[in-house]
Amino acid sequence: MNIETQFTDVVRLIREAQAKAMRTVNTQLIDLYWNIGEYISERVQSQQWGQSVVIELSRYLQETEPDLKGFSDKNLWRMKQFYECYREQAKLSSVMREISWTHNLVILSRAKTIEEKEFYLRLCARERFSVRELERQFNSGTFERTMLGTQNSHQ
User: What is residue 91's DSSP assignment?
Assistant: First the structure.
Protein backbone atom coordinates (compact mmCIF):
# COMPACT_ATOMS: atom_id res chain seq x y z
CA MET A 1 0.00 0.00 0.00
CA ASN A 2 1.53 3.31 -1.04
CA ILE A 3 1.66 6.36 1.20
CA GLU A 4 -1.02 8.29 -0.73
CA THR A 5 -3.50 5.41 -0.38
CA GLN A 6 -2.85 5.38 3.36
CA PHE A 7 -3.47 9.12 3.52
CA THR A 8 -6.71 8.87 1.56
CA ASP A 9 -7.81 6.11 3.95
CA VAL A 10 -7.29 8.52 6.85
CA VAL A 11 -9.22 11.25 5.04
CA ARG A 12 -12.08 8.78 4.46
CA LEU A 13 -12.12 7.93 8.19
CA ILE A 14 -12.23 11.63 9.07
CA ARG A 15 -15.08 12.33 6.61
CA GLU A 16 -17.09 9.33 7.82
CA ALA A 17 -16.70 10.46 11.45
CA GLN A 18 -17.68 14.02 10.55
CA ALA A 19 -20.79 12.81 8.72
CA LYS A 20 -21.75 10.60 11.66
CA ALA A 21 -21.25 13.51 14.07
CA MET A 22 -23.48 15.75 11.93
CA ARG A 23 -26.21 13.10 11.85
CA THR A 24 -26.01 12.80 15.65
CA VAL A 25 -26.21 16.57 16.11
CA ASN A 26 -29.16 16.74 13.71
CA THR A 27 -31.00 13.98 15.59
CA GLN A 28 -30.46 15.82 18.86
CA LEU A 29 -31.75 19.09 17.37
CA ILE A 30 -34.87 17.41 15.98
CA ASP A 31 -35.44 15.81 19.40
CA LEU A 32 -35.04 19.21 21.06
CA TYR A 33 -37.49 20.85 18.66
CA TRP A 34 -39.92 17.97 19.18
CA ASN A 35 -39.70 18.37 22.97
CA ILE A 36 -40.15 22.14 22.80
CA GLY A 37 -43.12 21.66 20.45
CA GLU A 38 -44.64 19.15 22.85
CA TYR A 39 -44.13 21.51 25.80
CA ILE A 40 -45.74 24.45 24.00
CA SER A 41 -48.58 22.29 22.66
CA GLU A 42 -49.43 20.99 26.13
CA ARG A 43 -49.39 24.52 27.60
CA VAL A 44 -51.62 25.87 24.83
CA GLN A 45 -54.06 22.95 25.10
CA SER A 46 -54.39 23.42 28.84
CA GLN A 47 -55.02 27.11 28.13
CA GLN A 48 -52.04 28.13 30.24
CA TRP A 49 -50.35 29.66 27.21
CA GLY A 50 -51.49 31.74 24.29
CA GLN A 51 -49.71 33.42 21.42
CA SER A 52 -48.45 36.25 23.60
CA VAL A 53 -46.71 33.82 25.98
CA VAL A 54 -44.81 32.23 23.08
CA ILE A 55 -43.74 35.69 21.94
CA GLU A 56 -42.62 36.43 25.50
CA LEU A 57 -40.69 33.14 25.60
CA SER A 58 -38.93 34.05 22.37
CA ARG A 59 -38.01 37.48 23.70
CA TYR A 60 -36.86 35.97 26.98
CA LEU A 61 -34.57 33.53 25.17
CA GLN A 62 -33.16 36.29 22.95
CA GLU A 63 -32.49 38.56 25.94
CA THR A 64 -31.16 36.02 28.43
CA GLU A 65 -29.45 33.64 25.99
CA PRO A 66 -28.38 35.79 23.02
CA ASP A 67 -26.08 33.04 21.71
CA LEU A 68 -29.07 30.72 21.18
CA LYS A 69 -30.31 31.01 17.62
CA GLY A 70 -33.44 29.65 15.96
CA PHE A 71 -35.95 30.37 18.72
CA SER A 72 -38.03 33.14 17.19
CA ASP A 73 -41.74 33.05 18.01
CA LYS A 74 -42.40 31.81 14.44
CA ASN A 75 -39.95 28.95 14.85
CA LEU A 76 -41.38 28.07 18.27
CA TRP A 77 -44.85 27.83 16.68
CA ARG A 78 -43.35 25.64 13.93
CA MET A 79 -41.97 23.32 16.62
CA LYS A 80 -45.49 23.06 18.06
CA GLN A 81 -46.90 22.36 14.59
CA PHE A 82 -44.17 19.76 13.97
CA TYR A 83 -45.01 17.94 17.20
CA GLU A 84 -48.76 18.08 16.64
CA CYS A 85 -48.46 16.84 13.06
CA TYR A 86 -46.39 13.77 13.88
CA ARG A 87 -47.29 12.86 17.47
CA GLU A 88 -49.73 10.18 16.26
CA GLN A 89 -47.30 8.92 13.60
CA ALA A 90 -44.94 6.60 15.49
CA LYS A 91 -43.82 4.94 12.25
CA LEU A 92 -42.36 8.28 11.08
CA SER A 93 -40.51 9.00 14.31
CA SER A 94 -37.12 7.75 13.16
CA VAL A 95 -37.27 8.96 9.55
CA MET A 96 -38.09 12.56 10.47
CA ARG A 97 -34.94 12.57 12.62
CA GLU A 98 -32.81 11.52 9.64
CA ILE A 99 -33.34 14.79 7.80
CA SER A 100 -32.58 18.38 8.78
CA TRP A 101 -34.97 20.80 10.44
CA THR A 102 -35.11 22.80 7.21
CA HIS A 103 -36.09 19.69 5.24
CA ASN A 104 -38.76 18.94 7.84
CA LEU A 105 -40.13 22.48 7.59
CA VAL A 106 -40.37 22.26 3.81
CA ILE A 107 -42.30 18.99 4.06
CA LEU A 108 -44.48 20.26 6.89
CA SER A 109 -45.43 23.41 4.99
CA ARG A 110 -45.82 21.94 1.49
CA ALA A 111 -47.31 18.46 1.94
CA LYS A 112 -51.08 18.46 2.28
CA THR A 113 -51.73 15.03 3.78
CA ILE A 114 -49.89 12.75 6.19
CA GLU A 115 -49.41 10.29 3.30
CA GLU A 116 -47.69 12.96 1.25
CA LYS A 117 -45.55 13.97 4.25
CA GLU A 118 -44.53 10.34 4.76
CA PHE A 119 -43.69 9.98 1.07
CA TYR A 120 -41.38 13.01 1.06
CA LEU A 121 -39.83 12.19 4.44
CA ARG A 122 -38.86 8.72 3.25
CA LEU A 123 -37.76 9.91 -0.20
CA CYS A 124 -35.66 12.70 1.26
CA ALA A 125 -33.99 10.43 3.83
CA ARG A 126 -33.31 7.70 1.27
CA GLU A 127 -32.02 9.96 -1.49
CA ARG A 128 -30.29 12.48 0.83
CA PHE A 129 -31.80 15.38 -1.09
CA SER A 130 -30.60 18.93 -0.61
CA VAL A 131 -33.33 21.39 0.37
CA ARG A 132 -33.25 22.76 -3.18
CA GLU A 133 -33.76 19.26 -4.63
CA LEU A 134 -36.59 18.57 -2.18
CA GLU A 135 -38.28 21.80 -3.32
CA ARG A 136 -37.80 20.68 -6.93
CA GLN A 137 -39.49 17.35 -6.13
CA PHE A 138 -42.49 19.23 -4.72
CA ASN A 139 -42.61 21.61 -7.67
CA SER A 140 -42.55 18.74 -10.16
CA GLY A 141 -45.38 16.89 -8.34
CA THR A 142 -43.36 13.74 -7.62
CA PHE A 143 -45.87 12.51 -5.04
CA GLU A 144 -48.87 12.98 -7.33
CA ARG A 145 -47.11 11.34 -10.29
CA THR A 146 -46.00 8.41 -8.13
CA MET A 147 -49.51 7.91 -6.74
CA LEU A 148 -51.03 8.07 -10.22
CA GLY A 149 -48.47 5.54 -11.45
CA THR A 150 -49.26 3.24 -8.52
CA GLN A 151 -53.02 3.52 -9.12
CA ASN A 152 -52.63 2.86 -12.85
CA SER A 153 -50.49 -0.23 -12.24
CA HIS A 154 -53.17 -1.68 -9.92
CA GLN A 155 -55.97 -1.28 -12.44
Answer: G
